[in-house]
Amino acid sequence: MTTLRTLATPLFLLFCWHLLSSGGFFPRYLLPSPAVVWETTVQLWQSGVLPTNIRASLSRIAVGFSLSCLAAFSIAALVTRFSFLKNLLAAPLGLLRMIPPLAMIPLLILWLGIGRATQVTIIVLASFFPIFMNTCEGLARISPEHRELARSLRLPTRIFIRCIVIPSATPSIITGLRLAFGYSWRALIGAELIAASSGLGYMIIDAQQMLRTDEVLSGILTIGLIGWSLDALFIRGSARLLRRRFPELAV
């Protein structure tokens, strides 16, 4: 029953799409039918175009998101530990957070050229702040009572971090990671529309220039389905992690 409720809206939208495309409301070259888009998707997959571009996008996400996590966790830990760093970095980080990552593309192209470095940098800029801010919030949740308990028991730093800091900060960190991945996925596709020679975003803009609406829709739906699937996997993995490592935090 839950599966049916989940699929009800997508199936309804698919039916509406079929009616609009077959009913003459739009020219077929502007809105091809779902069947045509499906056939195009199969052809793109069999020809290797779609798998190649999917791999290109996923590899950039893997590198950029990993670098973003490393930077965000490190800086969050430092600014939480040293208050002078928090005051020192507050203004530049606040300014950078207000600049849309895609607005940086022209400058990054001048500095790094059209290639992987520009796209990875866009991913880092898009995903850094959700991870950083949620990690800082999670680290700030450690109560004074827990800190006092750790001092009275003379807990080693590694035990304090493992048993108190990480469980306290984990819910906020997981929220930040989920938000950051969504931001990074959307920013990557935007970057590939402008500064790439491969990837799903590039595939869409190349198809648009060739007036292949079916390929454009195929690429858009592929982007949505991949992002949706990865988000679902993240939710399931994080829930399993909470149940196994931190059962007191699991819902």
Could you explain how this protein is built, in words?
- The structure is a single chain.
- By secondary structure, the protein is an all-alpha fold.
- The chain has a domain of 143 residues: MetI-like fold (Orthogonal Bundle), CATH 1.10.3720.
- 82% of the residues lie in helices and 0% in strands.
- The chain contains ten helices and no strands.
- Helix 6 packs antiparallel against helix 8.
- The longest helix is centred in the last third of the chain and has 38 residues.
- It is globular and about 75 Å long.
- The protein starts with a helix and ends in a 6-residue tail after the last helix.
- The model has no long low-confidence stretch (mean pLDDT 87).
Question: Fraction of residues in helices?
Answer: over 70%
Low-confidence stretches: none
Number of strands: 0
Strand content: under 5%
CATH class of the domain at 54-196: Mainly Alpha
In CATH terms, the superfamily of the domain at 54-196 is MetI-like
Return the string of H and E elements. Answer: HHHHHHHHHH
CATH architecture of the domain at 54-196: Orthogonal Bundle
The backbone outline, from C-alpha atoms, is globular
Mean pLDDT metric: 87
Number of helices: 10
Query: Alpha-carbon distance between the termini?
Result: 22 Å
Give the CATH topology of the domain at 54-196. Answer: MetI-like fold
Largest sheet: none
Q: Provide the structure class.
A: mainly alpha
> What is the radius of gyration computed over CA atoms, rounded to a whole number of angstroms?
22 Å
